[in-house]
Structure formats: structure tokens, C-alpha cells
Specification:
The protein is of the alpha/beta class. It is 36% helix and 20% strand. The protein starts with 9 loop residues before the first helix and ends with a helix. Bound molecules: adenosine-5'-diphosphate and magnesium ion (MG).
Length: 301
């Protein structure tokens, strides 16, 4: 926190900023307009380095937002701010109208699945349920594994399954987090509302075919769960295929260079048909141009 700066920190700002007083009303139980995530004038610094911002971004409930940007432009920082692992240097972050609480209401998936090798596939999912303060019943574990197509390998150790399957375990584990914040009014508490799935380049380490399969599954799983997703990638193809909205960030400090709704059907279309459609090609060209515009050889290294 830089208290000497002319702009005030997230906490200090609440007394003098109209947007923050709006946020205070929100946490009093007023409707938050369907916004799962709201970033208001958010900037994050590491020492003297401004990693992201300022950024204003509102993500409605159920949206699948994909963030695309050069390495080092602050994508992971943005996800950590949304997950509550970092506090913004300036501005406010709200999830379901409240300051995010780490480990509550958001499941995270990283490039490396980070599984516990001494536990079975099912055991890893059960542990995630326990950490989220939820009953780890065999039925619930099975249900989560079914959703990512892994129910038949539940008893295997994580080193006995492929890299793609390991990443599926990580997704199942992230989906296990369905515990709304304790401050959520009981009347509005249900199993899907306000829940986030935050994915940081989760398929980057996988081979192309496995990657496509997982993209297809994630698209299906997210449409079925109606969870709000924020997905970070370098791949324009992946962004168009997965997103209901794509935001292209500038090189550091990451700011919004392009914010584009993706009007492609979310269900009822075969993945190959979608990938081969003229609409897909047009979106890929538009986003690709924005990304190329923003990348220079120095920053994409
Ligand atoms: P991205 O995920 O887009 O590659 P990051 O959010 O990881 O970008 O990083 C954004 C910028 O902030 C980078 O320049 C990075 O070096 C810097 N950075 C990230 N985390 C830290 C940290 N903990 N301390 C200092 N600098 C950091
Ligand atoms: Mg990153």
C-alpha cells in the first residue's frame, strides 16, 4: 500500500470514493446487478513496478471470460486479485458484491495440476472438498469425477494417469469449491450462484490433441454448471473457442486493449463444426489482430 500516493488504497478509498460506497451498499445485501466480479479502477504494483491497471471490469454471473495478453502483462496478478490472494494497490475488487476471501467461492486451476501424489485421484478430490469445509462423501467425489470423465480411474494414483487426466483432476478439484462466502445471505446461497472458476493457462503444458479435448470438456462442463469462469491463455484459438467474452490486455501494465463479446453458440454444436465456422474465423482474425497490434518482439520474449 502506498499511503503517500494521491490515489488511495482499496481500504482507504471506501470513505471517499463513490464507487466504493456503492460496493459497501452491495455487501449490505443489496443486489449486485448480477455481477460475479467487479474491478473498479484496479491497479496492482510490486514495489515500483506497476503490473496491471488501471482496469475497470464487470463480469456478469455465468460469463466465460478469457484474458489474452503477452507474458508478464499481469494476467496471473489479475486472477490472484480476483481470488483474494492479493489486495489491489489501488481500487476495489468485489466478487458477488464482497471483497474476495481466499479459498471461498473460487476454484483455481494452474498450468501444473499440483496434485498430491500419495493420494488417489478420488482422494485428491475428497481433500479439496474437505479444505472447502464440505462433506467428502463418495457420492460427491464420484459426481465431480463424472463431470470431468474420470470416474473409472478414481482409485488410481495420480502418477498412473496421463497429463491430460491429471489436469482433469485439477478441474474436478476446482469445481469442488462450491462454498459461498459465510456472509452471503442464506436466501441467496445456492450451489452455483457466485461461484468462480479461475484458470491460469491450464492447458499450456499439454499436447495439442489433449488440449483440444480438454477445451471441449471445459466448454461443456462450464455451460452445464453455469459457473462464472475467468480463463487466462496466450492462444487466440483457445480464447475464441472457450470464451463468451474475450478481453485482450496490453503489455505491462496490463490494461484492456479489446473487450469483445463472443456470440458463438455455447451448446448444441459439434466442436469441429464450431472451429470450422466462418464466424469462428472472423473472431479469431479480429482478436489475433488486436493481440499482434499489442505485442512487440521485446515484450513477447
Ligand atoms: P502474466 O501472468 O501475464 O505473465 P504476472 O501477473 O505473473 O504476468 O506478472 C506481471 C508482472 O509483475 C511481471 O512483470 C512480473 O515479473 C511481475 N511480478 C509478478 N509477481 C511478482 C512478485 N510477486 N513480485 C514482484 N514482481 C512480480
Ligand atoms: Mg501468468
Amino acid at each position: 500500500m502506498s499511503s503517500g500516493d494521491s490515489r488511495s488504497s482499496g481500504a482507504a478509498r471506501s470513505s471517499d470514493d463513490s464507487r466504493s460506497s456503492g460496493a459497501a451498499r452491495i455487501s449490505d445485501g443489496a443486489p449486485h446487478g448480477g455481477a460475479a466480479i467487479r474491478l473498479a479502477d484496479v491497479e496492482h504494483r510490486y514495489g515500483d513496478v506497476t503490473a496491471v491497471g488501471p482496469i475497470d471490469l464487470t463480469v456478469p454471473e455465468g460469463e466465460f471470460l478469457v484474458l489474452v495478453g503477452a507474458s508478464g502483462c499481469g494476467k496471473s496478478t489479475l486472477l490472484r486479485l480476483i481470488a483474494g490472494f492479493e489486495e489491489p494497490t489501488f481500487g476495489t475488487v468485489r466478487t458477488a458484491g464482497e471483497p474476495p476471501v481466499p479459498g471461498r467461492g473460487a476454484g483455481l486451476v494452474f498450468q501444473q495440476p499440483r496434485l498430491f501424489p500419495w493420494r488417489s485421484v478420488g482422494g485428491n478430490v475428497a481433500l479439496a472438498l474437505k479444505y472447502a469445509g464440505l462433506p467428502a462423501t463418495p457420492q460427491r467425489v464420484d459426481e465431480l469425477l463424472q463431470r470431468v470423465g474420470l470416474h473409472d480411474v478414481a482409485r488410481r494414483r495420480t502418477w498412473q494417469i496421463s497429463g491430460g487426466q491429471q489436469q482433469r483432476v485439477a478441474i474436478a478439484r476446482a469445481l469442488a469449491v462450491n462454498n459461498p462466502r459465510p456472509t452471503t445471505p442464506p436466501a441467496t446461497r445456492d450451489r452455483t450462484k457466485g461461484l468462480l472458476l479461475l484458470l491460469d493457462e491450464p492447458f499450456a503444458a499439454l499436447d495439442a490433441l489433449t488440449r483440444e479435448r480438454l477445451q471441449e470438456d471445459l466448454r461443456r462442463v462450464s455451460a452445464a454448471s453455469n459457473r462464472t469462469c475467468v480463463f487466462v491463455t496466450h492462444s487466440v484459438d483457445e480464447a475464441v473457442f472457450l470464451g463468451s467474452r474475450v478481453v485482450v490486455l496490453t503489455p505491462r501494465p496490463g490494461r484492456i486493449a479489446l473487450d469483445l463479446p463472443i456470440g458463438l453458440p455455447r451448446t448444441g454444436i459439434a466442436p469441429d463444426e464450431l472451429r470450422g465456422s466462418p464466424e469462428f474465423a472472423a473472431l479469431r482474425a479480429e482478436i489475433g489482430a488486436a493481440v499482434r497490434d499489442r505485442y512487440s518482439p521485446e515484450v513477447s520474449a
